[in-house]
TrEMBL record:
Source organism (scientific name): Staphylotrichum tortipilum
Name of protein: Oxidoreductase
GO molecular-function term, one example from the UniProt record: nucleotide binding
Gfo/Idh/MocA-like oxidoreductase N-terminal domain residues: 10-138
Lineage: Eukaryota, Fungi, Dikarya, Ascomycota, Pezizomycotina
Pfam families noted in UniProt: Gal80p_C-like, GFO_IDH_MocA
Length: 387
């Protein structure tokens, strides 16, 4: 009887004691502390803004006293008992908190965006290749069952070769004029985290993971509401700030001929910040083929990759020959259903990474290299626009 592999020793960056609804606590910790997660991983260290802040988080989440607390990324990088470093900080802290670990050849998982700009993302990808570590980036849509179902329909020829795809999406922020105080940086393009690089980019990546990389793409950007209201926890306006991030994004493109797309199959993608017209869905995505059309509807959730129990995401197929519309069922695996919605697809990334380490399985997640290319595509589209 073979001995099960030792759990991967993991360090979390950005697990805050004071922000217990953060992405690290909502999306990563539930899987890592689940029975399945603990069979694959063990948390051995935290890195926060200071060692004291890391110790506070260890206490707040009742982590073992053996978990080491760091406030210096270089010290974490030197810890030889850390196999995988996972970064959940604000995007403009990603590079500085992981680059030393990357250079030391550690495996590193960074939430999307990989860095605040394409140059920093490319530097991380280059350093990682030089040092020889593995990488994961949190463009988690590639592992959601919804995307898997869409990919199966398209690759299985259910609608024939694709001739066009259209998306009409609202969100990125819940309000068209207001931003929570803690997200003021969403109004500052230089920080690198905003509705374009996060809300739009997640969906844009899913589109290309289903239909293939676009051969040609153009962007048209607008800032309709340059003044943005900062709101406190009760929704009261604290002050107004000027934004330099587009709030209306229109992207068009074409695919080369492939086994799933006709030559010059087109993409039209419209993404607008804030709420849709009452009664309209937050996201509608159609994939029009030679023999039929696929439609995805998400009533209230823009981030279809992480799920929302109040916004069931529906896939339908219209067969042109029979003129019948069929609902396509999809679901999470049983172990995922035991986790909160945000943690289900994050858990799938962790599961795939552990399988890659254990057996050499295929990487079904986004690496630093792939993320750097996505950064370059997104930044290239936006490069000629000014607020």
């Amino acid at each position: 009887m073979s001995t099960p592999p030792s759990p991967i020793r993991l360090a979390l960056i950005g697990l805050s004691a004071t922000a217990q609804t953060s992405w690290a606590s909502r999306a990563h910790l539930p899987y890592l502390l689940s029975p399945l997660g603990q069979s694959r991983y063990t948390i051995v260290a935290l890195l926060n803004s200071s060692a004291a802040a890391a110790r506070a988080a260890i206490a707040a989440y009742n982590l073992p006293s053996s978990v080491r607390a760091y406030g210096d990324p270089a010290e974490l990088a030197e810890d030889e008992e850390v196999d995988l470093v996972v970064c959940n900080t604000r995007v403009d802290k990603h590079y500085q908190t992981v680059v030393e670990s990357v250079k030391r050849g550690k495996d590193v998982y960074v939430e999307w965006p990989l860095a605040e700009n394409a140059n920093k993302a490319r530097e991380l990808a280059t350093e990682l290749e030089r040092a020889g570590g593995r990488s994961v980036v949190g463009l988690q849509g590639v592992k959601t069952p919804l995307v898997g179902a869409l990919r199966g329909l398209v690759e299985g020829g259910r609608v024939g070769r694709v001739v066009s795809s259209e998306l009409r999406v609202f969100g990125g922020l819940n309000d068209r004029v207001g931003v929570p105080e803690g997200l003021q940086y969403f109004t500052e393009k230089v920080v690198g985290g905003n509705i374009y690089t996060i809300g739009f980019a997640h969906v844009f990546h899913m589109v290309q993971s289903v239909l293939g990389e676009l051969a040609m793409v153009n962007g048209d950007f607008h800032l309709q509401r340059p003044e943005t209201q900062l709101q406190d926890a009760e929704g009261k306006v604290v002050k107004a700030v000027q934004s330099n991030v587009p709030d209306l994004i229109l992207v068009s493109g074409k695919w080369d001929e492939s086994t799933i797309t006709q030559k010059n199959a087109t993409l039209h993608f419209r993404f607008r910040r804030g709420q849709p017209f009452p009664g309209e869905p937050a996201l509608e995505w159609t994939i029009n083929g030679e023999k039929g059309e696929i439609r995805v509807i998400s009533p209230t959730a823009t981030f279809i990759q992480v799920g929302d129990p109040a916004s069931p995401r529906v896939i339908e197929v219209h067969d042109f020959e029979t003129n019948q519309v069929e609902k396509v069922e999809w679901d999470y695996e049983d172990w995922q259903k035991e986790l909160p919605f945000p943690a289900r697809v994050i858990g799938a990334l962790y599961e795939n990474f552990a399988e890659v380490k254990r057996t050499g399985a295929n990487e079904e997640y986004v690496t630093f290299e792939a993320a750097a290319k996505r950064h370059e595509q997104l930044e290239g589209l936006l490069s000629e626009w000014t607020a």
